[in-house]
Amino acid sequence: MKLGFLLSEAWAGIRSNLAMVFAIIIVSLVSFSFASIAALMQLQVSEMRGFWFDQSRVQVFLCTETSADELCPQGPVTPEQVSAIELQLDSPALSPYVEGYEFFDSEAVYQQLLGQLGSSDITSYIFPQQLNQMFSIKLVDPADSELVLEAVGGFTGVEVISDQSRYFDQIFAFFDFGSLLAAAVAAVMMLTASLLIFTTIRLSALARSREISIMRLVGASATMIQIPFLVEGVLVTGIGAALGGVATYFAVGYAVDAANEANLGLFVFIDQASVWPIAATMVGLAAVIATVASGASIQKFLRV
Amino acid sequence: MIRFESVSKVYAAGARPALDEVSLEIESGEFAFLVGPSGSGKSSLLRLMLREERADGGEVMVLGSSLNKMPSRRVPEFRRQIGTVFQDFRLLPYKNVYSNVAFALSVLGKSRAFIETAVPDVLRLVGLEDKAKQFPRELSGGEQQRVAIARALANRPKLLLADEPTGNLDPNTTDDIMSLLSRINLSGTTVVMATHDRRIVDQMRKRVVQVQGGKIVRDQKDAGYKELPTDQNPIVDLGEQA
Fold first, then answer.
1. For the whole model, what pTM was predicted?
2. Nearest residue in B to A16, CA atom
3. Are A131 and A110 in contact (CB under 8 A)?
4. ipTM summary value
């Protein structure tokens, strides 16, 4: 079947059903926009997770003279206790999970703190001996922090262990929920789009039942008969999905500008350029959905 | 070309068979009328020849293919060798004469060059070369049927099946169409035509296969129409048997 003829037949179908065609375009636009937003949120969460997990450390704070008795009944940590913790971190059981670690004595921690506080008045009330010596441990996979807690937590001289990656759990959970919500809306809308495509192609086939009967009589195969209808469905849904991509592009531009202006302290890893590969995937997904829905719709008319 | 061997067709369980043990053979190049009252089984015979239906019993052979055993995927290829014409023309109202004929070739994937040669040829054959740009609503009934015949012939079929092609036409136009079908037959295309019209059957003096109650009750060459009583037993005129 020649391309020109194929497109002219698809166009004839579109013209005969303009109202339904607009409905499909709008529903596809909304559903694939939601799907794109869900994908973008997942991309943002994934990049954030990677970035923050790369920055995050498990910090093992050691006992000082000022530590509470219930946390440090043995008093301040001794050099032997520090060596024992180092040995544990280097042990064959734990080392595969540890990418590296650094030990900071009180003076080093104090200097770090001074660097962070700058010329603040509060620095005059802080002294090195008040500050915990600590191990700052970078894990191969931050999700394995429980292992360190179990392996080092019971050592004498350890006051408290802090896992920085836990600070991000809530924010990730928020993004995950938003992403899930967008995906759920997208799924419902896509189902609606599929049903609309099914009905529209069925109406289009009914409107062209005479053409179909002539096609069958002159010996057109089932594939030849259904291709114009599949093209019609894919074309209309594809236009909706592509417009959804354009809408998402502008929505992301607006949202990223708003997030940066609001200075929320969040690193925004997505930008408008991130939209294009997702939009292309959505157009592909739209083509698959439209092919399946149109193909199912036209089956009834293909019996020879 | 066409062979039916003890063919039966039943549309609804328990109902009288539309065709009951029918045997028939039509040779290549023949012109055969299928005659008989409404519901006698003429259209069922045509539908079986076109493989729109499958026989419930017996064997249907058309153009060398056994249609009972033919898988559905092979039916389109089989139908490309057959042209079909109906009483209601079945033209596409929004396409002009040229496009109506070209449509049948376009759906088969024929090249533009082939279509640009074949369509004017076939329009010339049916005498509509000067009406190529007109739409069906601008044509008379006879002209519309000529377009339908042109479409049926566009792919140069070996067999033309016509189901009451003159049913909607006045006597003069009917004569024109019959003359056209006769010329098509003379050029080598086998024509099988179902009709009620006793006048044209009598006039043409071709082979007549008379069907009644799902049975062939008469099969005669160079024959005319003959009314038979409804309880008529099958008669085959052996002297002029086809």
1. 0.69
2. B94
3. yes
4. 0.81
